[in-house]
Amino acid sequence: MRVGFVGLGTMGGAMAANAARAGFDVSAWNRTPGRAAELEDLGVHLLASPAAVAAASDIVITIVSDTPDVEAVLFGPGGVAEGAAPGTLVVDMSTISPSATRQFAERLAAKDVAMLDGPVSGGSEGAKKGTLSIFIGGDATDLERARPVLQSLGTTITHVGPIGAGQAVKAVNQVILAGTYLGVAEGIVLAIKAGLDVEQTVAALSGGAAQSWVLANRSGRMLANDYPLGFKVALHRKDLGIALAMARELGASLPVSALCEALEAGLMGQGHADDDMSAVARSIRGLSGLES
User: Fold this and answer.
1) What is the pTM of this model?
2) Is residue 134 within 8 Å of 154, Cβ to Cβ?
3) Residues identified as active-site
4) Most buried in the list 4, 210, 234, 255, measured by CB within 10 Å?
5) Which parts of the chain sit beneath pLDDT 50?
6) Final residue of a domain: which of 162, 194, 226?
7) What pLDDT, on the 0 to 100 scale, is given for residue 38?
8) Cα angle, residue 176 at apex, residues 173 and 178 outer, rounded to 5°
């Protein structure tokens, strides 16, 4: 099967590598030329445009930063829609607006090109290890076409409903993460201020109801006040913007998400946009009189 990747950033590059290792014939394009030259060693064909990738692929995976970026790589000059033959399947694994996703699917369908939305959770670690959770919206038959490729990228593939539903589930995921990261950050700061052995405290909590992936994998960063990249503050803030827009449309109140978005906006203003999102602890530390 011929698989194309449009977007080779932190997530897309690792995913393309895993697809190539799984034996797929992989073509790829990235906005910044030369950034992914190491993929050529795995047999990935680096092409000149999204249209060229689409022309060389049965399934095209797009994974770029935001809704306008997806529209540009799909429908802009040299975009996927230009090169895709009838019967091509597009799987957008970016995190974007659910309503825009539905519009993009309609525009592709007019060209006899099918679309799934498949945003992911698991961060850069999951992308490298091929252990992502993938939330699929779209037709079940199209999912079965894509499943062999998706299985090289993730370990949990869930069909959550029609097109756009994957993006809605991802918004829920990011809302829950906002509260979890803030809760762990506050707990770590409280433990520091109380003079506790924070590592011992985390170990003790890990056997009870406070246990979470964030507590296990990000509390150490919050204690060290060092936040190497896993998932960028700027990207999570963008995702919360999507969730908050959904909430306004649906009449839902998300006060914790709104607080997290405001804290992340402050971090971005201080030059921390590219830190891992566990850097929300910087804000909590600062408000508590610790170094931030």
Assistant:
1) 0.92
2) yes
3) 170
4) 4
5) none
6) 162
7) 79
8) 110
Strand 120-121 and strand 132-137: pairing?
antiparallel
Q: In the prediction, which pLDDT does 229 show? A: 83
DSSP string of 5-54? EE--SHHHHHHHHHHHHTT-EEEEE-SSTTTTGGGGGGT-EE-SSHHHHH
Residues 204 and 155 grouped into a single domain: no
Residue 123 has what pLDDT?
86
95: closest CA among 13, 175, 171, 35?
171
Domain boundary among 109, 136, 162: 162
Considering the domain architecture, whether residues 55 and 95 belong to the same structural domain is answered as: yes
pLDDT at 244: 97
Residue 35: per-residue pLDDT: 63
- The CA-atom distances, in angstroms, between 25 and each of 7, 29, 111, 254, 292 are 17, 14, 24, 43, 47
Residue 208 is part of a domain; what is its CATH number?
1.10.1040.10
Query: Going by C-beta distance under 8 Å and a sequence separation of 6 or more, which residues neighbour residue 23?
Result: none
